[in-house]
Amino acid sequence: MTTPRVIGMLGGMSWESSAEYYRLANELVRERLGGLHSARIVMASVDFAEIEELQVAGRWSEAGDLLARVAVGLQAAGAELLLICTNTMHKVAEQIEAAIDIPLLHLADATAAAVAADGLHTVGLLGTAFTMEQDFYRDRLAGHGFTVLVPAADDRAEVHRIIYDELCLGEVRESSRASYRRVIDRLAAAGAQGVILGCTEIELLIGARDSPIPVFPTTRLHVEAAVAASLGGDGG
């Protein structure tokens, strides 16, 4: 068997979802290879408080420089492909990609492939306010030929609040699950054929049973693409 390529995980944003990345990668490799096999991973986990401060201040270039330095360290540690374990910080994906010589597996591309495989053309997007309101992520998805719908302003604010005030702190509340269900229902009523869980923490709260339309869990889809690339040799 060809030695699997080492997956570099740029995580900590938040560590709650990064832990899911690590767990899922190892479970998927064990499913594929059996026995005692596990994923070949190097992970760097940053201090999310520093990143969040830069997000709020709009200092994206500084955040990109910080993450690019960490990515270079992952490459030096042996990573052969890279995941940015957060949707929002794909805003600086080009900065990070420019600093390294290994493939970066873009989360939006992995998600778009799953949407395309299901034959959908209109999808709702849930995520942080940055992801829902700025064009870096929506345009990347739209570039694959989809129409992307986002919730109304009040719903966006509530979705964002739950991510930062609860999910990033490991709090999973039934009242918040109910709130997300209502937002998804409104997206479906507006024409969404599926909904992208475009924040890696949302999967801690929402699953397929919570939605009347198909859900696309970006964390799992990203890890599945990484494991396929690691075991199959496709740089993505």
From TrEMBL:
Record keywords, A-Z: Isomerase
Keyword flag Cell membrane: no
Superkingdom: Bacteria
Stored InterPro entries: Asp/Glu/hydantoin_racemase, Asp/Glu_race, Asp_race
Family membership: Belongs to the aspartate/glutamate racemases family.
PANTHER family in alphabetical order: ASPARTATE-GLUTAMATE RACEMASE FAMILY (PTHR21198:SF7), GLUTAMATE RACEMASE (PTHR21198)
Name of the protein in its database record: Aspartate/glutamate racemase family protein
